[in-house]
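COURSE: Structural Biology Practicum
ASSIGNMENT: Worksheet 4, Part C
STUDENT ID: 0417
INSTRUCTIONS: Below are two proteins. For each, the amino acid sequence is given first, followed by its structure token string. Answer the questions at the end about the second protein only.

PROTEIN I
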Amino acid sequence: MLRIHFTGVDLARVRMAGRPDALWETILSFHRLRDRRDVRLFGEWRTESRIRLNSETRTLGMLIPSRGYFPDFLTPVEGRYGWDVGLDALRGIRPERMRRELELLGGGSGAGSGAGVALPPRLREFMDDSAKHLPRLLGELRAYHRAAVEPYWTHIQAQIEAERAARGRALLDGGADELLASLPPMLRWRAPVLECDYPVDRDVRLRGRGLLLQPSFFCRRTAVTLHDPQLPPVLVYPAAAQLASAPAGGEAARPAVEEQRVRTLGKLVGHTRSVVLRAIGDGATTSELARRAGVSLASASQHACVMREAGLVTTLRHGNAVLHTVTPLGAALLKGGAVAS
């Protein structure tokens, strides 16, 4: 069990991340690649990623076990500002911090190496000469990110935006208390403590620093937090997600996928769906969408379904309702005036 203890000041400093964190998504996706579960959600992604992934990942495999602790330095706080910024921060990690966290990794489960524990030879080699081996790690990370994460980034962004919209509604409806209570079921808000199913028993005391909530596409089943209590508190938790098939290398979609998209987009031409797409704004339930667009509830639901199939809208359940948000593709379409109005 993980227990995060809040003060009144911490509640006032709870915040949602503004975008997906590139390094968290990359590291957590490496877990998903080796996991045989969630076939419906990740099965096709695993197949496509493995086809593209033809480079070495031995260093990643050594630093990211299938379960349990992995070093905090792999997910620097700068990763929330983008892939390149995060990678630069990782490149600048101090050797003493790297050594300390690698010792924890060698000890297993993040509990510390303990006296007399012999580190695996390759891990010891990495720790003794990180300046030599860090470039190899960075190279593997880049290659893996290009193969398994980058082709899906637009879809990942859309899912996180939808998650932010749902949590933002909870915050507006009832403040930080309602926001924390609205998080996925594995997270339970029992004020002033947020509890989470966790592999080890642990208490985190925020002590006025607040908490960054970082929704993640590739985080599944349980939330994740940093091991070092001195680092800025962050809770990475599973966002509601549905993975769409991505084109290889981020290039043009495969013919069958592109043909289906063209057929679906063709259904969008017309004044009503233009109005409906614009009416979604920063997020709308089906009832709100019907009211804003001046259409019936059934019509609003049908239009939202077509736009969701076209990749223009993402839909998440919010309480007893569903919340529609515009994806980056939908926003670009509106901005470019490609939808008739």
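PROTEIN II
(use this one for the questions)
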Amino acid sequence: MAEQTVRWGILATGGIAAAFTADLVDLPDAEVVAVASRRQESADAFAERFGIPRAYGDWSALAEDGDIDVVYVATPHAAHREAAGLCLEAGRHVLCEKAFTLNAREAAELVALAKARGSFLMEAMWMYCNPLVRRLKALVDDGAVGEVRHVQADFGLAGPFPPSHRLRDPAQGGGALLDLGVYPVSFAQLLLGEPSDVTARAMLSAEGVDLQTGALLSWDSGALASVHCSIVGGTATAASVTGSAGRIDVPGGFFFPERFVLHRDGRDPEEFTADPADGPRNSLRHEAAEVMRALRAGETESPLVPLEGTLAVMRTLDAIRDRVGVRYPGEASAGEKSAGGATAGEAPELTPA
């Protein structure tokens, strides 16, 4: 029996929007009915490319389209609060790209708005929906490596990116941390939850964004996580999870892995590989399928990408930026307080380094 068709709107027309739409159109019972851009010609070209019936030259028209069940927000993260907020206000469900927002205050505002409207909201953290990553988490949760002692993850691009590039532009939330560092931080918090303490160092650009950042996260259990991101050096994008009784190594592409190896004390290594039946490793269809499953079930958030987990990651990213001195235009001054009672850009429960 066919599932109920879920009707999608696509907000933005950049590379990630194209990649997501290409995977979405191949999903049974998913229908892309509209796309919006701030430029009509961009929306028209995108619609023609993917056979989308309606193209809008402004975001509000998409948000108000009553034929849309859920909107995928794929703008740069500096615009996520505005774009996702428009859609939630109009009664649409929303899947919003990562980093979820510029800061935890904006993230909390979106979550509060979704809850007030009774709407579904999810961060597009496709790593959390990846079948092999889910298998890794299940093994860790089941005690395969004992008590987790240390998590390591890195994500760096070689560049170089000119000052005009969005990754160098403070107005677009530029820098390595929000674009790339969200993955290592999210990987660590998938396994350990929100850290109790954060220390960090960064190399900043002349524009004031982070070119590379390293952070040490710690938990009351004694567990540590070493995370690194860069837009000035390509890294292995590797990860590892070390526990009291073993270790898991993800040799590359940890956020969409091809394989990982479990080393248990006293046993031969076990290799786990991606199932070809799950589709290409870089497929975004797993997160789309999770959104559709949740909508059909009447859920307002996904258990795979819970909103509190998204908020916790944003608090950690805020804390890292606070430690290294990155603040974006329009953010509250150091003396202003966010909705959670902390100074904007800080996580109230984290001890300053």
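ANSWER KEY EXCERPT:
Q1: The mean pLDDT is 92.
Q2: The CA atoms of residues 48 and 55 lie 9 Å apart.
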